[in-house]
Amino acid sequence: MRISELSERSGLSVPSIKYYLREGLLHRGERTSPNQARYDESHLNRLRLVGALTDVGGLSVATTRELLAVIDGEHRPELQELMGLTLKSIDGENGARSDVEEADLAEADALTERHGWHVHPGSPLREELARTLSAFQRSGLGLDREWLDGYAEAAEQAARRDHDLVAGIDDLDEILKIVVVGTVLGERLLATLRRLAQAGEAHRRYES
Amino acid sequence: MRISELSERSGLSVPSIKYYLREGLLHRGERTSPNQARYDESHLNRLRLVGALTDVGGLSVATTRELLAVIDGEHRPELQELMGLTLKSIDGENGARSDVEEADLAEADALTERHGWHVHPGSPLREELARTLSAFQRSGLGLDREWLDGYAEAAEQAARRDHDLVAGIDDLDEILKIVVVGTVLGERLLATLRRLAQAGEAHRRYES
Lengths: 208, 208
Hints:
Two copies of one chain form a homodimer.
Chain A: H1 3-10, H2 14-22, E1 30-33, E2 36-38, H3 41-56, H4 61-72, H5 79-92, H6 102-114, H7 124-138, H8 145-166, H9 172-207
């Protein structure tokens, strides 16, 4: 197909496609004349993947390129490695962070250890958890262990569903897309459902 | 106490305090000379509440003023009413939204009905849920009913904890603070825990 059809079927503009070609996120088409090339389904699939990573996932072009290099590389990554890389990419794009107190890190570690979650000591998520717990404290809302564990169980239940989405899938492109889209959209979904459940719970507790 | 001490104890700068006084978010102190006033614990408490609503909750000054007017008013609001107003304020500050398809709204309604959540037809959350479900679809990730129900149950478990935070508290200032701080920080907490649980679950599934 020509670039115009590729644009139509992918929903991306021609300038966007040309940009992805220049940036190396999309492989070149087969040249049919000095200024025309032919594209196939492989281009369409790759564009859909790139769109999911950048638009929905909010990943930068540089990070997207790195992830694509991993799945295109000679060494086929393990699912675990790919998921780790993807999640790290999403977390890494969240900008600069302030310092964290040792005491808050210790509280964060105690929580993840109680739930048997394997966390790398250098993980930005570990610091983010410590920072959030500290923000609760500073706002005068101390959270006890039981309360936190309830929240952690809710998170675990959602995370198990997230993993179910990739279970049984072999195509790395597809897995990459699911992990990014599922992580980003899943976060929005869980946040919205929680607000709705809060309202529902309020209705149940105080209206009757 | 003088304004300098009020600043020190609240952690807010003198210009910020003067701004809140001008905007009517903080009641005037007792005038002791033409350019000096005395403040007491009631000012400190109110400043802490305003700080939680604006800094942590991200509410605008106008919305904060509306909420304070409700709790300062002659008519003492019901807890349910206050929570509804607060959650509506937080949701309302999320900016402009695009159109939603009827089919997506129907799917959102089916989900909330299955869980017995009472949702107002005009709720921005209803539209947000429809929009998120549609984004999943467009990304090629169809979610089946069982999967969605699992997510909704996770959200419900977190929401129940959120309500536990205000159970047994009578002070409206305090409740307002808890609802805003708990909703905003709770969202961050749940999102971070979910990412950690994802990593933990990946380790459990693929490492052993």
